[in-house]
Amino acid sequence: MKYLIANWKMNSVDIDVWEQEFINVVSSQNNFPKSDEVKLIVCLNLYDYTVFSKKIKNSKNEIFNKISLFTQDVSQYDDGAFTGQISSKFLKKVGVEGSIIGHSELRENGDTENIVFEKGLRLNEQGLSNIFCIGEGLEILENNKKKPFLLNQLQTFCKDNISPGLLAYEPIWAIGSGKEADSENISSAVSIILDFFEEKKIDCPILYGGSVSKSNIEEIISIPGIDGCLVGNSSLDGEQFAIIASKIKS
Ligand code: PGA
């Protein structure tokens, strides 16, 4: 099974248009991957969630019908006076399947390793899944500190029965830059992560994220150990996202 995740971030997406563009691509291809070959997940805000989840329920398209919906963040707290935050209890109540945690755009805004762990705990308590993001900045890469940096991110998170549902390796310098990481860099991250998983007996798909597009998806997905991709910009357009999905086969 391969995984393809859309991260819409705070972008405005016209969901009617997105659905139509997506379905046009799916219907025009005889060999579009089946839902047991590629798992599609869209990460959106809660307002879009209510609109999208209704569309999924009402759609007659089998592929569109199987899209899973996640949010992009969750509160580290259980309940209480935390203005503007959304708890895992609330996500559970509305029917969201899980959330991204540890995205670099949130880490830049103050999410420490410990906060990311707490968010993982809150999701776990509600039986919700997580897409755990890790990745080094340029300075760390250039100073040859990538391995200890990634290991620290993994170690702080994978404890007390918490482990990633899906692990996304997203080097910060590749996010939104239009310049994906080269295969050597992705492979070295995969081997650091796989060694760690083996030691901890964790079985979890590894995804790559950072400037994935319809032009580089085939190359990235062919890297050994990569089970899928997390897509930002190129997921805002239903056609682009479906084309990327069409190029992934398990
Ligand atoms: P990008 O975003 O595909 O626009 O680089 C990826 C991400 O932030 O998850």
Q: Quote the beta fraction.
A: 5-15%
> Reading side by side through the largest sheet, how are the strands ordered?
3-2-1-8-7-6-5-4
The distinct bound ligands, ions and cofactors come out as: 2-phosphoglycolic acid
Amount of helix: 40-55%
Whole-number mean pLDDT: 97
Please state the CA-atom Rg, rounded to the nearest Å: 17 Å
Structural class: alpha/beta
Q: Give the strand tally.
A: 8
Order of helices and strands: EHEHHEHEHHEHHEHEHEH
The count of helical stretches stands at 11
- Compute the separation of the termini in Å: 5 Å
Give the overall silhouette: globular
Q: Characterize the biggest β-sheet.
A: 8 strands, parallel
Low-confidence sequence ranges? none
Description:
By secondary structure, the protein is α/β, with parallel strands linked by helices. Helices cover 42% and strands 15% of the residues. The chain has an eight-stranded parallel β-sheet. It starts with a strand and ends with a helix. It binds 2-phosphoglycolic acid. 2-phosphoglycolic acid binds next to β8.
